Structure formats: structure tokens, C-alpha cells
């Protein structure tokens, strides 16, 4: 599809600077721009590229002031990054959507499939399952007995959704993620470990996105719950009976131990670890490779392992760099002290 700069500006409430009839039909990074492409400038370290880019149109923030001539047409908006995301969402939604059920899919007679769904080859849908309207189930997905998926969901290839688990509306599950595997529950005995049956489920609310190879364990009893708007990256582990608050976001390789309750609008950097049976308050930011032990009140910025206030951690790190110098100084002072004692 082809759009003009004027049409794009109207959609994102922007102001055109240049040729309002400039046409675009694709997206490109500003440093890799080509004629007919739309790019954006949000990070100032890429500013130099705006003067050399071959992209036809560039989204910029309203306060951007060029220092020299720019060939591209500019569209000034309140937030270039957000406007780009909005345009890309619109572009993706405009693509033709597949519909229909493949003859190579295995669907139990008692399963309910909504309208305008796409069920790809080699999908397995168990007894009593419910699939909402307009949802896309791609190849090699396994959906266990009694599980449900809401409207407008995208389930990518090789996803496993275990029995009785629930996925809400407008959710995206990327390849290889596992919803509802057993929690890590074992009771030590004289002969080894005895498995504790995991009788609960996983509940995923609306507008959740889960990355590739992320695992969310079913509860021992009750549910492991992922509330609305949560965004999980690849390779994340959410253990049994956890509750992740609305709009919390986690980067790759975060691990949340069992029976942890995390509040709303939290952020976890890559490889962060959250200890079990703890409560993390709303709007807590947990930095990369940070390890929390116990509950946190909320609204904190944490770094380090064990976790501590980010400002205090930065100060402590500064002292760590000076340890060799401090050790040398202590040895010198010790020698001087010994010499004074001997006099």
C-alpha cells in the first residue's frame, strides 16, 4: 500500500515540513533509508543520519530544529517513537489475514471454534477447548483439553497451551512458549523427591504478549495469573502461583520464583531474579541481573545482587573501583604505624 506524507501526518496528528505528496510504501531505519521509505528520529545520537538519509519521509519530534538542509520530508509529531509504533500497527492490520481451518489440523469434536479464525496444518485442539473469533493458530500448536483462547489472538508455531489454561483477548504468544507446564513442586523423602501434583491453571488476561520460549507454570492450586497488558520477552520463567500485575514488562531471561506477587507497571531488566513468596510493589524498576530477596515496597529503582537502591549501588560500585588503591594505602599506613610503635 502507498501513503502520502499528508495522509500519514493526518493519522498521527503531525505537521508536514516539505513535500506533503511524498509517497511511502515501506519502513526503514534512518541510516538504511531508501526512496519510498518512512524512517524516524527519536534518539539524538542518530541525528547526523537525517542529513544523509535517502528515506522519503522522516518522523521527528516537534522540538527538532535542523542545523542544515534536509532532503527528506519531515513530519513533526509529539513523540516520534510512539507515532512510528502507531503507523506500524496500522500497516500490519491492513495486511490480508488468513482464514479457514486446515484439513491437516486435528480438532476434537467438542471444541468450539469462533468466526473468521485461521487454524493451520498440524494444530491439535483438545476436547472442550474454546477458540474466540478472529484468532490465528499457527502450525504445530498444541492446545490441551478444556483450554480457552479469546478473540483476536495470534498463537505462533510450536506453542504449547496445557489443559484448562485460559488466554484472554488480543494476546500474542510467540513460538515455543509453554503455558501451564507443571510448577516445580517436589517433597523430599528418604528415597528422593516425591512429585506434588500441580492441580491449578494459568490465567492470561487481555492484551498480553509473551515472547519465544518463555514458560509460565501452572499453579499447585488456584492459578498463576498474568494480568492485562503485561509484556514478556523471550526466555522468561514465571513459576507456579505467581501473579504479575497489569502493564508490567520484563526483558529476556528474567526468572520469578514461586508464589511471588508483582505489582502493576513494574519493569524488570534482563536476567533479573525475583525471590519466591515475596511481594513487589507497583512501579518498581528492577535492573538487569538484579536479584531481589524478600518483598519491596514499590516505586523503587533497584540494582545489584542482592538488590539495593540504584543510587546507593552506583556509589558502592565507584568504591569498588578504588579498592586496589585503598588496599595499597592501607598497607602503607600499616607499615608507618608499625614503625611508630617500634620507636
Describe, in short, the structure shown.
The protein is 16% helix and 30% strand. With 343 residues, the protein is an alpha/beta fold. The strands form six sheets. A twelve-stranded mixed sheet has the order 8-11-14-17-20-25-28-31-34-37-39-40, with helices on one face. It has a ten-stranded parallel sheet with strand order 9-12-15-18-21-26-29-32-35-38, with no helix packed on it.
Q: What report would you give on this structure?
A:
With 343 residues, this protein is α/β, with parallel strands linked by helices. The protein folds into 3 domains: 3-93, 3-Layer(aba) Sandwich (Udp-n-acetylmuramoylalanyl-d-glutamate--2,6- Diaminopimelate Ligase, Chain: A, domain 1); 100-312, UDP N-Acetylglucosamine Acyltransferase, domain 1 (3 Solenoid), CATH 2.160.10; 313-342. It contains 4 helices and 40 strands. A 12-stranded mixed sheet has the order 8-11-14-17-20-25-28-31-34-37-39-40, covered by helices on one side. The protein is flat and about 95 Å long. The model has no long low-confidence stretch (mean pLDDT 95).
Anisotropy-based shape: flat
Sheet bearing the most strands, described? 12 strands, mixed
Structural class of the secondary elements?
alpha/beta
Q: What's the level 1 CATH class of the largest domain?
A: Mainly Beta
Strand content: 25-35%
Number of helical regions? 4
Count of DSSP E strands? 40
Gyration radius over CA: 27 Å
Alpha-carbon distance between the two ends: 91 Å
Residue stretches low in confidence (pLDDT < 50, at least 5 long) are: none
The appropriate CATH architecture of the largest domain is 3 Solenoid
What share of the residues lie within helices?
Answer: 10-25%
The CATH homologous superfamily of the largest domain is called: Hexapeptide repeat proteins
Amino acid at each position: 500500500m502507498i501513503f502520502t506524507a499528508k495522509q500519514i501526518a493526518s493519522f498521527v496528528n503531525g505537521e508536514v515540513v516539505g513535500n506533503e505528496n511524498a509517497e511511502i510504501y515501506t519502513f526503514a531505519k534512518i541510516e538504511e533509508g531508501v526512496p519510498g521509505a518512512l524512517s524516524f528520529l527519536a534518539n539524538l545520537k542518530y541525528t547526523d543520519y537525517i542529513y544523509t538519509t535517502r528515506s522519503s519521509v522522516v518522523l521527528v519530534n516537534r522540538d527538532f530544529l535542523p542545523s542544515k538542509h534536509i532532503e527528506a520530508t519531515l513530519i513533526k509529531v509529539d513523540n516520534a517513537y510512539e507515532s512510528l509504533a502507531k503507523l506500524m500497527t496500522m500497516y500490519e492490520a491492513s495486511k490480508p489475514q488468513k482464514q479457514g481451518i486446515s484439513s491437516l489440523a486435528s480438532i476434537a469434536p467438542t471444541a468450539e471454534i469462533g468466526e473468521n479464525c485461521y487454524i493451520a496444518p498440524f494444530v491439535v485442539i483438545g476436547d472442550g477447548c474454546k477458540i474466540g473469533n478472529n484468532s490465528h493458530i499457527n502450525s504445530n500448536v498444541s492446545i490441551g483439553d478444556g483450554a480457552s483462547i479469546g478473540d483476536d489472538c495470534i498463537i505462533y508455531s510450536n506453542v504449547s497451551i496445557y489443559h484448562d489454561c485460559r488466554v484472554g483477548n488480543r494476546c500474542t504468544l510467540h513460538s515455543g512458549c509453554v503455558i501451564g507446564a507443571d510448577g516445580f513442586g517436589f517433597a523430599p523423602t528418604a528415597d528422593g523427591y516425591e512429585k506434588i501434583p500441580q492441580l491449578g491453571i494459568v490465567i492470561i488476561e487481555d492484551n498480553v504478549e509473551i515472547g519465544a520460549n518463555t514458560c509460565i507454570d501452572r499453579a499447585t492450586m488456584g492459578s498463576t495469573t498474568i494480568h492485562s497488558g503485561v509484556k514478556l520477552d523471550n526466555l522468561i520463567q514465571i513459576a507456579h502461583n505467581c501473579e504479575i500485575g497489569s502493564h508490567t514488562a520484563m526483558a529476556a531471561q528474567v526468572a520469578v520464583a514461586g508464589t511471588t506477587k508483582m505489582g502493576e507497571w513494574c519493569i524488570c531488566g534482563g536476567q533479573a531474579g525475583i525471590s519466591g513468596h515475596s511481594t513487589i510493589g507497583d512501579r518498581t524498576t528492577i535492573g538487569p541481573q538484579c536479584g531481589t530477596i524478600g518483598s519491596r515496597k514499590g516505586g523503587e529503582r533497584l540494582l545489584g545482587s542482592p538488590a539495593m537502591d540504584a543510587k546507593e549501588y552506583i556509589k558502592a560500585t565507584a568504591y569498588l573501583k578504588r579498592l586496589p588503591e585503598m588496599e595499597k594505602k592501607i598497607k602503607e599506613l600499616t607499615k608507618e604505624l608499625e614503625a611508630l610503635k617500634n620507636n
